[in-house]
Design goal:
Blueprint (H helix, E strand, L loop, with lengths): L3 H4 L27 H8 L6 H5 L7 H10 L7 H11 L7 E3 L19 H12 L1 H4 E4 L19 E2 L10 H13 L3 H18 L19 H12 L4 H19 L1 E6 L2 E6 L13 H11 L3 H17 L27 E2 L1 H21 L2 H22 E2 L4 E2 L2 E3 L7 E3 L10 H5 L5 H17 L19 E2 L1 H13 L3 H21 L24 E2 L19 H14 L35 H4 L2 H9 L8
Antiparallel strand pairs: 1-2, 2-3, 4-5, 6-9, 7-8, 9-10, 11-12
Helix pairs in contact: 6-20, 8-9, 8-10, 8-20, 9-10, 9-11, 10-11, 11-14, 12-13, 14-15, 18-19, 18-20, 19-20
Enzyme class: hydrolase
Catalytic activity: alpha,alpha-trehalose + H2O = alpha-D-glucose + beta-D-glucose
GO molecular function: alpha,alpha-trehalase activity
């Protein structure tokens, strides 16, 4: 398959898509480009385009392509295509096997001892048990000789998010790891990271997810964060130092292919943005991308730019949001007509890269590479200065994305769209920003929470896109809590944590959740409780239905953040109140022990709460306040 290094020709500071060469995401004539892909996806044989591109073949590629031509190729009828797919493709998920043997799994994990509320303690135990249904290994034995799959090779065990997401995803994995490590599953956590490190060796970066059709884009580069998180928990081995070459390789990829020059009042700054080089619809969303591009323009260059910006939106992880469009107030069916992701220089991406630069510096010093470490310190200091100059709004204390003009000048203006990304920098540099600004920022967050009992929404604009209001995403609650803690807003952090627990628990209970000997299932339920990918911020216990696909259950990052919240706030969390439902607790004895003194595991609480604390511990006195 094609590696992204061979595909991209971006230059730092350049951002005109018209001048770029475009390529499909990989070299597969089945999964990434060509008449077969176009015909099947435009025939709409499945409700979700991802279904087809996740199917392995039943025959070698040449035979599949010949069979396609025999039914008329691009001109085949829908009925003929339906039969063709049934005869030539197997069920999706054939390449995966659930991992049942988990030597480190403990039904009574240490963190439960710190959860004082009996109902939440048993709910935490239940969610802890869900890991057993989400851990996979790759098994290609069911594929015939010469048959192919869209799965990328994976040597180690990994966690799938759930639902339609049958593979490991990049930035999801960080939030999943927070929970895995709290659950004591260090080996599985390490295996996830090793799979991602292998991707860097293969491609020079971590793809969006473990599919060939994701090879043209990445996701928020949180690999260094994962390595640092594991290093804090595991300690004692040299895993982080062994990962340093891959962290350097990935860093260079983002520096080379995602840079943009921003011209500010205090000079030019080199920052980063999401950008993807492609002239094709995303294979897993082919029909909707194709329809969008052709509804906007008949010009092939304009269509290619739409495809590229849709892919860049997917690279952001926020697919899709008013952050990436020209007119956030456009009608819902027109909102994506103005997609312009590559024109947006995002707060969170540059904050993540700032952390990466700082952490790589630490590892280089640990290895004795003083000169190279000094270079990364300089890079980090330059980026921090740029973050404060370009994104920071002193009036509100919030950070806003920067929107580049269309003239390639590097000039532009701050966005006015609030999102949890607006407080992301406070997680890592909160103690180095003017305290008055921080308090203004989190006072506003408190006002948002007061109007959203289910948590902080992705933005304050309801566009019908899933990364906008009223959707409350688990990772965004995590980030906002981290920023609040770093700036001394502990009550607000606790309130957001409680809102998250309320929403997750109530949605689970309303979809059939129960706890033996403690909580009976609601009458008339056939399901056994669902953990969703996102929730409604305005209605506690309501899954959110807006977005590009149906509600997904599982769910890796939801479980991970819930366990993290319980580990760090378990002594103050209260029994959830679910609107319209009376919770009748049968017993408080169940299977758990009474709350005990803080466990050995919770001795790392001060670290798990904050990479920000880690930043201060490692760089106190080195980071200037740049306001």
């Amino acid at each position: 398959m094609l590696a992204k290094y061979s595909l991209l020709g971006l230059f730092a500071g350049s951002f005109s898509l018209a001048a770029l060469p475009f390529y499909p995401p990989c070299d597969s004539p089945i999964y990434c480009y060509g008449d077969l892909l176009h015909a099947v996806q435009m025939a709409k044989l499945f409700a979700d385009d991802k279904t087809f591109v996740d199917k392995p073949t039943k025959r070698p590629v040449a035979q599949v392509l010949a069979a396609f031509e025999s039914i008329g190729g691009i001109n085949a009828t829908q009925e003929a295509l339906k039969t063709f797919v049934a005869e030539n493709f197997a069920e999706e998920g054939q390449e995966l096997k659930q991992v049942d043997n988990l030597p480190q799994f403990d039904p009574n994990p240490e963190f439960l001892h710190g959860v004082h509320d009996p109902l939440l303690r048993e709910f935490g135990r239940t969610v802890h048990g869900y890991w057993k249904s989400l851990i996979r290994e790759q098994d290609l034995t069911k594929l015939c000789d010469g048959c192919v799959s869209s799965m990328l090779p994976l040597k180690y065990h990994f966690v799938v998010p759930g639902g339609r997401f049958r593979e490991i995803y990049y930035w999801d994995t960080y939030f999943t790891l927070e929970g895995l490590l709290i659950s004591g599953l260090k080996d599985i956590a390490k295996s996830n990271i090793k799979d991602l490190l292998d991707f860097v060796d293969m491609f020079g970066f971590v793809p969006n997810g473990a599919r060939v059709y994701y090879q043209d884009r990445s996701q928020p580069p949180m690999l260094a964060l994962m390595v640092q998180l594991y290093d804090r928990y595991a300690g004692g081995d040299d895993f982080a130092l062994k990962a340093l070459p891959q962290l350097l390789t990935e860093y260079e990829y983002w520096a080379k292919y995602h840079s943009a020059t921003v011209r500010a009042s205090d000079g030019d700054h080199m920052l980063s943005r999401y950008i993807v080089t492609t002239d094709q619809p995303r294979p897993e969303a082919y029909s909707s991308d194709y329809a969008l591009a052709h509804s906007v323009s008949t010009d092939s260059k304009r269509q290619a730019q739409i495809y590229a910006d849709m892919a860049a939106g997917a690279e952001s992880g926020w697919d899709y949001s008013s952050r990436w469009v020209r007119d956030p107030l456009a009608p819902p069916d027109k909102i994506l007509h103005g997609i312009r992701t590559s024109h947006v220089v995002p707060v969170e991406l540059n904050t993540i890269l700032y952390f990466n630069e700082r952490y790589i510096e630490v590892l280089l010093r640990r290895r004795g590479n003083r000169e190279e470490a000094d270079e990364f310190r300089s890079k980090a200091e330059a980026r921090l200065k740029a973050i404060q100059s370009v994104f920071y709004d002193s009036n509100s204390g919030l950070y806003y994305d920067f929107i580049l003009n269309d003239d390639n000048s590097g000039r532009g203006n701050q966005s006015d769209i609030f999102s949890p990304a607006s407080v992301w920098p406070y997680w890592w540099v909160g103690n180095n920003v003017d305290d008055n600004g921080a308090q203004k920022a989190f006072s506003f967050v408190g006002e948002v929470l007061a109007k959203n009992p289910g948590g902080i929404p992705a933005t304050l604009i309801n566009t019908g896109q899933q990364w906008d209001a009223p959707n409350a995403w688990p990772p965004l609650q995590f980030i906002t809590i981290q920023g609040a803690m770093e700036t001394g807003n502990k009550k607000l952090a606790t309130d957001i944590a409680q809102a998250y627990v309320n929403n997750v628990f109530c949605a689970w209970y309303k979809t059939g959740g129960s706890i033996p000997n403690m909580l009976k299932q609601l009458p008339g339920m056939s399901d056994t409780g669902h953990m969703f990918a996102k929730y409604n911020s305005t209605t506690v216990g309501a899954q959110s239905g807006s977005g590009k696909y149906s509600a997904q259950v599982g769910f890796g990052w939801t479980n991970g953040i819930l366990l993290w919240v319980m580990d760090n706030f378990g002594d103050v969390l209260k029994t959830p109140v679910c609107p319209g439902i009376e919770i009748e607790i049968q017993s408080t004895k169940a299977t758990s022990s009474a709350p005990q003194a803080a466990s050995v595991h919770r001795s790392v609480k001060s670290l798990t709460l904050s990479s920000g604390k880690w930043m201060v511990d490692n760089f106190q006195g080195q980071i200037e306040i740049l306001l």
